[in-house]
Amino acid sequence: MFGDLSDRLDGIFKTLRGQGKLSEGNVKDALKEVRRAFLEADVNYKVAKNFIAGVEEESLGEKVLSSVTPGQMVIKIVYDRLVQLLGGQSRDMAFNPRGITIWMMVGLQGSGKTTGCAKLALRHKRAGRKPLLVAADIYRPAAKDQLKILGKALDIPVFTTDDGPVKIATSAVAHAKENDYDLLILDTAGRLHIDDVLMDELKRMREAVKPTEIMFVADAMTGQDAVKSADEFNKALGIDGVMLTKTDGDARGGAALSILEVTGRPVKFVGTGEKSADLDVFHPSRMASRILGMGDVVSLVEKAQAAVDTKKAEELEQKLRKAQFTFEDFYDQLQQVKNMGSLESLLGMIPGVGKALKGLPIDDRALVRVEAMIQSMTPEERRNPSIINGSRRKRIALGSGNSIQDVNKLIKQFGEMQKMVKKLGKMGPKAFSGMKFPF
User: Which domains does the chain have, with CATH numbers?
Assistant: First the structure.
């Protein structure tokens, strides 16, 4: 998300930074380009207009124009205003301190509500809660089955009956109380467009179960249509926040930049991929950093901490101290890296790296090929790669669907890695102080 906007702003601010002194004309010309970049990113027209007006007013002050680094000060003003536009601070879902927490997920058909329900349930199951998914969409074909499949894969129970949506919801609340569930997530029906029948049904459900929070689920790829729908749902139903889905397929990001200003309701979560764990809290300051090409190291560290198996990391550190590193260890590290997300998204969080690799092919399938080659090795070969001769390499290539050249390349690279580990081992414990895994 924001890829196109980030590229445009980078070019504009590079020109601004290159000027030792700024005039009122320089600033206005640059901000005119910023406004155009916002509109091309599908940001709401009024939002873009108000944003630029605020930045311009602050940037044309004597403090900025007479500064030693006026270009950097203008960028800082843009950053601060972006953070404010995106919501200022992250906001989590609300919880009921005196009973069952009920979240009602609403939105148009195809926005990703069902998958969003499963992602939220998994997130809070990992946080120690006992969630119950409720299949209250009786209109979309296979909607109940989809939620049941997701629930089974995540080991999260799904409740439904053959009644109408409102009755399903009230029965789910009773079931949750009887079975000590503390979080109930309602997957409601959507439509291809907003209509009175849909809203009336959602209002009756809201009155029947008194949800702790109503979350509007919006498809980021629909841009201003998503913003308009969120506004209409808020006026008719009253929503508490927004979950933006499919942000990994939206290079513009106009919806995220417009929703709060238009609806008065913040974006709370963003769906970043197809996996059930691909759901991130929406952090305005981190998102503003990404938009301006500053990376997002904090999110990268959090992903690493969530993916790392602490016990395995400690065991690996002890092996490295003894200059021991096998294909089995390498395989474990690959699994942890895969759990963190796509390589492109991870590299984009490192300041400067995303820009440096812009346009270069970053193929996550390369990890899959490496994984397949390691899986085609025998346990003995993984522990002692030196025994992998020509015939073994041929067998590994055939078993993994790769060429012998691919296997040779992997073994050569692994050999170089082992040499590095041995050098670190000779340096003693200091060589590993502060080292974090996975690699």
Answer: 3-86 (1.20.120.140), 101-283 (3.40.50.300), 300-432 (1.10.260.30)
